[in-house]
Design goal:
Shape: globular
Strand order of the largest sheet: 1-2-6-4-5-3
Radius of gyration: 17 Å
Order of helices and strands: HEHEEHEEHEH
Bound molecules: adenosine-5'-triphosphate
Length: 150
């Protein structure tokens, strides 16, 4: 019994240490899957387990959000709580490589979570990166999709 509890404790310590650097400016991947991250996936990110800490400054949100103020405030409280932040799942980002090699991160959903992280002046937000193409962006933006990526 003592051995089992030692093993469980040691394993759970190791999980958050699985950190890698993949590319700038998205520095880290972790494969730790919280209950929220596991259960609260979208159709786009259902097969993606890696969660990245993506700098807020690199995320493009071309469509303005319509926000429920109470929900933003409630999310800010949850995110600020040391124990409760895990209850907020990662947002999805469309990750597009431009024709000249630049990396672009577009966000369409996750409006309330993004706004809560923004108001809290967090430098990064938890996100799943959904590999996407300019064609995918056209689905969201039609002809307003940025031409500089093509
Ligand atoms: N205090 C809270 N208020 C609202 N959602 C919370 C809160 N704490 C944790 N959550 C979780 O955060 C997620 C919020 O996702 P939700 O789809 O409701 O909003 P959003 O994606 O940020 O905004 P939108 O759907 O408008 O784009 C849910 O998975 C919810 O369970």
């Amino acid at each position: 019994m003592k051995f089992i509890s030692y093993f469980v404790r040691e394993s759970s310590r190791r999980i958050p240490l699985i950190l890698h650097r993949i590319q700038n400016p998205v520095h880290t991947i972790h494969t730790h899957r919280s209950a929220a991250a596991t259960m609260d996936t979208t159709v786009h990110s259902a097969g993606i387990s890696e969660v990245h800490h993506v700098p807020m400054s690199v995320i493009k949100r071309p469509i303005p959000s319509i926000l429920d103020e109470q929900k933003v405030i409630s999310l800010m409280d949850t995110i600020n709580g040391e124990a409760s932040e895990e209850e907020v799942p990662p947002i999805d980002l469309l990750w597009i490589t431009g024709s000249e090699g630049g990396q672009y991160y577009f966000s369409f959903g996750g409006c309330h979570r993004f706004e809560a992280y923004r108001r809290l002046q967090r430098e990064t937000i938890k996100a799943k990166l959904v590999r996407s193409t300019l064609g995918d962006l056209y689905h969201y933006m039609g002809s307003s999709a940025p031409k500089y990526l093509a």
